[in-house]
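Hi,

I'm pasting everything inline rather than attaching a file, because the server keeps stripping attachments. The sequence lines come first, and each chain or strand is labelled.
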Amino acid sequence: MPLSEAKSLLQRNANRPATRRLDSSEHIPSKLNTLPHDPGKDLADLENLADSLERFSPIIGLQEVNQPDCLLLDVTGLDHLFGGEDQLAKQILQHCQARDYVARIAIADTPGLAWGAARFLVRDSTGPLVIPVHDSHVMPSLPIQALRLSKPITETLQQLGILKIGQLLQLPRHDLAARFGNEIHRRLDQMSAVLEEPIVARRKPALFYAQQLLDFPTSDRETIEAILQQLICRLCAELSGRQQGALEWTVKMYCQNKRLPWQFRVRLFQPAAAVEQIMQLVQMQLEQTWQSQPNQRQPTKQQTHYERPRHRKRRHVVKLLDGQTLEINEVSVEVTSCILLTQQQRQLFDERPRENRRELAQLINRLASRLGYDQVVYPTLRRQAQPEHAFRFQPLIDTGKRPRSTGKPGYLSHVMARPLQLYEPPIPLTPSPVLPPGQSPSPGATSSPPARVKAAGLPGNDSHPMPSLSNHEAAPVKPPPSSTEHQIIRSWGPERIETGWWRGRLARRDYWRIETKTHQQFWIYRDLNQGDWFLHGAF
Amino acid sequence: MLTNVKTNLESDQDRHPELISQLRKKIYETESSLRNHDGKPVSSGSPDIDQLLPSGGIPRGTLAEWFTDQSGNSGELLSLMAASRALSGGGALVIADPERRFYPPAAVLLGIDLADLVVLRPERSIVSNHSGEIGFQNNDLFWAVDQALRSTAVAAVWGCFSHIHERWFRRFQLSAESSGCLGLFVRPTWTRRQPSWAETQWQIRGRPSLPQLPCRQVSLKLLRCRTGRSGKTVSLNIDTVTGNVQRARNEKTSQNRSQTGPLPLAAQLANPAIGRRSARA
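And the predicted assembly:
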């Protein structure tokens, strides 16, 4: 959320504690916790909200932009289930408010009109807005920003004094097309239902589905696992019959004491239809989210310890990590993504005996299930000169494809041009003004590495503690406990990197490989914009 | 009593060096025959380092450790060179990167194909122990390393670890033996006294670079080598342009008395090969 919106929100809701993130260091009330803006987390939260809204609509799509902040629900023909469109909108609003979201909701004939109305007509105090069917008065009153046009076209129209859609509708369409292309026509037609704009469902419909209803709710873990195994067996048989392998499984458990199902997903690196493999991954997911405790019942007065059966089986009650007991009365398993299985015959005389893709895929599945899908990654190189942008880690499970060999970066001439360890973010260095004895400041000394540098707050010192160096006879220095001082005895460089202007700030750096008195080699740079020194890597 | 036995052994070793070396070789062959590997050791990246090892390289199905005093001492470089050689027989290279410092472009420059990499970057959950120190919970990471070492589709597992609990270390050894995978760990020197089940241990120390040549110098000492002679030291020149590692010209091999690497009693007892033999007997 932009800080400006957050501040206005805080002013409006002064009594409510803020739960959203702020992305700036401007002055804000001291009660708030500020965190750096994380678009990925925002998207994940929005997707979670979309999942929870599935009880109102089977088709929920995200706004198709880079950083969506809007959900589109197809509620066609569903209003009578909730007592009308007004009641439906109110229930959705209450649902969002219960999750600490401030939502603006509008129901209209088209997604475009609903989006524009929710953004520009709905206020927090007015509540949800339901535009009647075939109402032609709302659309002309909306500002042109409600058309979701590109920024240059919107700015040009504003410069021409066209601020409302009504003004735009009065202009001849062929003139608009000649000046701005088809974008305005397309958006106007979508908003007025002349051109259909389908809502792209975020969640794909289940390709294979199996469910089990229970006569009596249960919280016994063994029972639930047995049911899951049966369902997975059934689906794997169906998949094998069609020679297909699943890439994504969704397990849902409907509880008696909860309105929304408790669910999780199992994603695979390569398609599979083996029951044991899927069941192993499902059990790993269960172990991470369930705390399984033996159900220890107190013995009754008549039933003493020695009277009880000695080999009685202990029941394991399913509880979530937050302590909630799950009374499950329905279990369903869905396959939401699958592709055709390919069989590959191994060679009799294999020159690369460890090239076992199937076992590697199983290993990646296990690792990702335990550590998390975004923590088992593979690197790819990018054509960027700025070191921290020269690579990218991508989850292995998401793509399902192994990266191709990328070869050597062309701009690097020798093997030790880059360090094997990169400190991110770079560690600020404090250059010492004291030069070694017998050395005088040389012309252009500002661009050469200093004689000594002090690294403050080196991360992860427990694994590689750096020594505290104060061997200089002329000026013994006692660095603070959190900083270490290094005396530089040799340096190679500079390698100048000037790039990144398109990211908003030109990076101008002079990189040096330095050797310290303890014969450690580091990669440091001087920020030419500010003149500060940073430690960026270790060789 | 122990002193007398030790003195007798040393005198026997001096009298019958060939016999001792033959016996050592036979013991090594018997132990290594239980490992799941193709028999070819992995080159460490330099013939000058390989010749310090009895099998001419690092045996597959074992663990190797590189100890460094500080960061920036080429420990990562030399261990990753061995990892890149291990990939020649196919398989993946699993990088355990708990500190999130691994820099892939540098690995590419060492000849590692990024298509073979699986990088583990677990989320660090901060925990504080009873003394108030803040550390990171590594159980998930160690579990992942163990799984990777157990897989026959993985050629090598590489990682920088400070503390490895001996129970985990023992698991690593068993997993590596069962699959033939190679475990390569870079660790700080202060962890040398901790129990270890590594078959090969190296100590790396930085040396002053040569001002005229594009080389950096390091000193490599073989701390432990099962059935081999430990204590040998070699000075190496690492060519910063080509990456070649070779013995320094002015290097004089350490003439210190070499002896068979002593193993901690726990490590000897825990040797799975010995355990299996005694179970059959």
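Confidence is low (pLDDT under 50) at residues 17-26, 298-307, 434-446, 457-481 of chain A.

If the labels don't parse on your end, tell me and I'll reformat.
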